[in-house]
Amino acid sequence: MFVCICRAVTEEEVHEHCSSGCRSVDAVSERCGAGEGCGTCLERLHQIVNERVATSTTAA
Ligand code: FES
Fold first, then answer.
1. CATH number, domain containing residue 9
2. pTM given for the model
3. Which of 7, 9, 13 to mutate for ligand 1's pocket (most ligand atoms within 8 Å of CB)?
């Protein structure tokens, strides 16, 4: 499922960027451009990244 329509970025891609070290929406945006268009996806991007950061913190 696409999370960012403007840059055609899927939720799976965002998860992959989180898995490879991204810990913020800015970091994800730098890699794939998600969130750099209209901004509609930013709330969902924050949710995904925050969930991943919280999970990786508790798993460590
Ligand atoms: S939907 Fe992501 S910037 Fe527009």
1. 1.10.10.1100
2. 0.90
3. 7
